[in-house]
Amino acid sequence: MLNKGNPEPRPRVLISRCLGFDNCRYNAAVVKDEFVEQLKESIEAVTVCPEVEMGLETPREPVRLVEWEGEFHLFQPATGKDYTEKMNDFLDRWFEKIPQFDGAILKSRSPSCGPGDVKVFNAFEQPGQAGKSSGFFGARLKDESGGFPIEDEGRLKNFTIREHFLTSIYTLARFRMQVCSEEDNSCLISGLVAFHQQNKMLFLAYNDPVLRELGRIVANHNRLPEKNIIDEYRNLLPELLNGPPKYSAMINSLQHAFGGFKHDLSGEEKKLFLNTLEEYRDERVPLSVPLHLLKSWAVRFDNQYLIDQTLLQPYPLELVNIYDSGKGRSSARTA
Ligand code: SF4
Q1: Ligand 1 atom 8: the closest Cα is on which residue?
Q2: Which portions of the chain are predicted below pLDDT 50?
Q3: Residues near 104 by Cβ (< 8 Å), separated by ≥ 6?
Q4: How far does the centroid of ligand 1 lie from the alpha carbon of residue 81, in Å?
Q5: Which of 52, 56, 140 to mutate to test the pocket of ligand 1 (most atoms within 8 A of CB)?
Q6: Measured from the CA of 107, which atom of ligand 1 is nearest?
Q7: pLDDT per residue over 214-225, tens digit each?
Q8: Domain, as residue range, for 65
Q9: How far does residue 157's CA lie from ligand 1's centre (Å)?
Q10: Do residues 152 and 191 share a domain?
């Protein structure tokens, strides 16, 4: 960990149980996903299997999503049973006591878990495909999440989506653990001020207008009660993390950090960094390369402000090393 001021947070992530935790798929299989396997060690994983928890056995006949007369149904073609009511009862019970999550990874294309991209059929018997939607659990989670990131394991194979997901869950976990106490629900304005300070450069890369708005909230010129300030800030965070940063905004933030060394570096070092930025812009090197240069200079020149910035290491190094391949970025991020 670069910043030694705070312990590395453990994001609390909700995960479909069949993604490596249990043989609970309809055919009693388990899905081994490389990313989930790597992530398991670093997070607090909370698992759910809606089909088993609502009372179905394993193995079982598969179910599908059917849209009939404007309503979605969870239908089991082999038995002709409609499990919609049973699923909705389970969802009502489960969502009554939903804890605070920092993110979720759900099974792709599942009529129960899938957060999107789930086949929808247009009839119970001899159906055709009527499009795509979310599964029952995935749809409800999206409605009730309050904005934490929800992905499926298929989308997380994309480098940029995965990098953005990791940054988001670690940012939300830091907020949950540094600003508020879960035991008595109390929050500290001093924790919020420190959180905002440490995240400034990362947030600059994500969304400058929202960063300014967050800064206005922290400054609290209207002397609002602390709780209002913290709630307002927390409600705006998901908007900031709404999508991966654009290349141009990330480069702007990296240049900003680089500016802190303008009197310390040699001409050759400055040239090396500017060339590296160009290589990053052209997708010839991943983000970790310019970040690594900044990190080494922050340590060498004892630049504590930069050492504390989450921009330099938004999530643990072991996850960066394993997955920072640089592949697949252009499909998910704009210039
Ligand atoms: S996709 Fe969801 S409901 Fe289906 S087996 Fe996996 S965890 Fe259970």
Answers
A1: 49
A2: 1, 324-331
A3: 13, 14, 15, 115, 141, 145, 148, 149, 150, 151
A4: 18
A5: 52
A6: 1
A7: 999 999 999 999
A8: 12-156
A9: 19
A10: no
- Domain membership flag for residue 299: yes
- The predicted-structure confidence for 282-316, as pLDDT tens digits, reads as follows 988 888 899 999 999 999 999 999 999 999 999 99
Whole-number pLDDT of residue 1: 46
Q: Indicate whether 28 and 146 sit together in one domain.
A: yes
Task: Count the domains in the chain.
Answer: 2
- 16 close to ligand 1 (CB < 6 Angstrom): yes
Task: Report pTM.
Answer: 0.92
**55 within domain boundaries:** yes
Residue 110 CB–ligand 1 contact under 6 Å? yes
Return the pLDDT at 328. 46
Residue 32 lies in a domain: yes
**Are 57 and 144 in the same domain?**
yes
Question: What spacing in Å lies between the alpha carbon of 25 and ligand 1's midpoint?
Answer: 6
Note whether 145 and 199 are same-domain residues.
no
Please state, in angstroms and rounded to a whole number, the distance separating the CA atoms of residues 3 and 174: 13
Q: What is the Cα–Cα distance from 212 to 208, expressed in whole angstroms?
A: 6
Instruction: Confirm if 103 and 13 have CB atoms less than 8 A apart.
Output: yes
76 and 201 belong to one structural domain: no
Ligand 1 contact, 74 CB (< 6 A): no
